[in-house]
Design a protein that fits this description.
The protein is mostly beta strands and 471 residues long.
Length: 471
């Protein structure tokens, strides 16, 4: 509701005021005659919009002057950001008149705390404000125990003159454009430097694998970005339709898991990135699902598979709740596969063992362990047999009723029943094994031609093989 004021004109009895959405005054929102040299505009005006205005004067003889030069003003942009119960990630695309944390976040009912990507905190109930101001281009995590809305207004940010400097590693960025946009278009200028982007829901944009589960960057939301190298982001001012269509065609959007139905936001997560998800050497079918579990078998993350690829979040424990609702730091993460018919265990390969770490990124492959398909113990063969210099002894350890690790002992005895060599003793995971023996006691003394017995014991399994050593 601006007040427009102009200088008096000598001899003027009345003035005529026009306010328009354009500079040629063909789209009028105010067209009024008045006796004073100012007017308070009470007609509802659009937010974040530039208007043109002009006046002319008339004397008592109804003789009118020409129009004044045109002036303009811009209304403030109103920004509304929904705040949900739990963790949110927010940002501003305006310059508020008051940028203090208290002005922007203080009025929220149920508000508990806010964090920036440096770990600084605003928690008014404890009298803590390490953040101070809500900065342009920055993202913030906000925790609330009630639903509400951030309401603020200010001048809209011009993205063309507001570049964001992004360091290598993680940062939490703001979304500056005035309308929602494809993430591929919005971040198109820095795609080659991006490793991964995450939104508040843990959905991921991973350009190296052409995976885009985020789809659209939204006004009022913040995003976590991991940069392979430092770069500068300048958001585009618009999103050309042709480019949006080309981007959408190139990217893969993963299905939403249904078997491992999972939805959680604990405020921190690690990302699992797997390319090459196989069972018995074959790529698993599209829409297969991966479940991630903590050490107690609780589901802490899930993702679907497309073209042998998946990317999904594994959620850490929520520090704002008393119960354990995610992985604690360094807790081991295990995986299962659902191929639409059956559940299988999975091994994480070609990468570091996944253990929970906030913002950790684990890149590797997932495969059903070979031992899953072994159903019985076996002491299968010794070769060559007869042997001279050495012999290899093969045995199998099975998966039995979901137990994938068993105690195994394999010994070599001479024909008199004396222990000659302990070949194996310990806990073995399900799988095929082959252990070599060089035919010498203590690896020093060579035996003469002889007959030996190999015995394998495990659970209720007990089997022997005969070995023949020749000169």
């Amino acid at each position: 509701t601006p007040t427009l004021t102009w200088n008096a004109s000598a001899g003027a009895a009345v003035y005529f005021l026009q306010v328009s959405l354009n500079t040629d005054f063909t789209s009028l929102v105010v067209n009024s005659q008045l006796a004073s040299t100012s007017m308070n505009i009470i007609t509802p005006l659009a937010n974040g919009t530039t208007y043109s205005w002009r006046v002319k004067a008339a004397n008592g003889l109804a003789q009118w002057s020409g129009w004044s030069s045109g002036w303009n003003f811009t209304t403030l942009k109103r920004l509304l950001i929904p705040i949900n119960i739990g963790w949110n990630m927010i940002s501003l695309n305006i310059y508020p008149m008051d940028v203090s944390t208290n002005a922007i976040l203080g009025p929220l009912k149920g508000f508990i705390l806010a964090k920036n990507d440096h770990g600084e905190v605003y928690c008014p109930s404890l009298g803590i404000d390490d953040i101070g101001t809500i900065q342009t281009g920055k993202g913030y995590q906000v925790y609330s125990d009630s639903s509400d809305t951030i309401r603020t207004q200010g001048e809209a940010i011009n993205t063309a003159v507001t570049p964001l400097s992004l360091p290598s590693d993680w940062s939490m960025i703001g979304y500056l454009p005035q309308s929602d946009m494809s993430i591929v278009t919005a971040l198109g200028g820095i795609t080659s430097q991006i490793l991964i982007v995450k939104n508040n829901s843990g959905e991921v944009y991973f350009p190296d694998l052409f995976i885009d589960d985020i789809g659209t960057m939204k006004v009022g939301q913040g995003y976590q970005v991991f940069m392979k190298s430092a770069s500068v982001l300048t958001y585009p001012g618009s999103s050309p339709a042709a480019k949006l269509r080309a981007d959408a065609h190139a990217m893969i959007r993963l299905p939403v898991p249904k078997h491992y139905l999972f939805k959680l936001n604990t405020g921190n997560n690690a990302s699992i990135v797997a390319s090459g998800i196989t069972i018995q050497g074959l790529t698993v079918p599209d829409s297969s699902e991966i479940g991630a579990f903590d050490s107690k078998g609780n589901l802490v993350g899930a993702g679907a598979v497309m073209h042998g690829l998946t990317v999904f979040a594994v959620w850490g424990d929520n520090t704002q709740t008393k119960e354990k609702d995610g992985c604690v730091p360094s807790e081991k993460i295990t995986f299962k596969l659902w191929n639409g018919k059956q559940e299988y265990p999975l091994d994480f390969q070609r990468g570091a063992e996944p253990r929970d770490a906030a913002d950790g990124v684990f890149i590797g492959a997932l495969s059903v362990p070979e031992g899953f398909f072994i159903t019985t113990f076996a002491l299968s063969k010794a070769y060559p047999n007869p042997f001279k210099g050495g012999v290899k002894i093969a045995f199998d350890v099975p998966m039995i009723q979901g137990i994938a690790e068993h105690a195994v002992e394999i010994n070599i005895y001479n024909i008199k029943g004396n222990l000659v060599h302990r070949l194996a003793k310990g806990s073995y995971k399900a799988g095929h094994y082959c252990i070599a023996w060089n035919g010498a006691e203590g690896n020093t003394e060579r035996f003469a031609s002889n007959i030996y017995i190999v015995q394998m014991k495990a659970c209720n399994f007990d089997k022997k093989l005969k070995l023949i050593k020749i000169r």
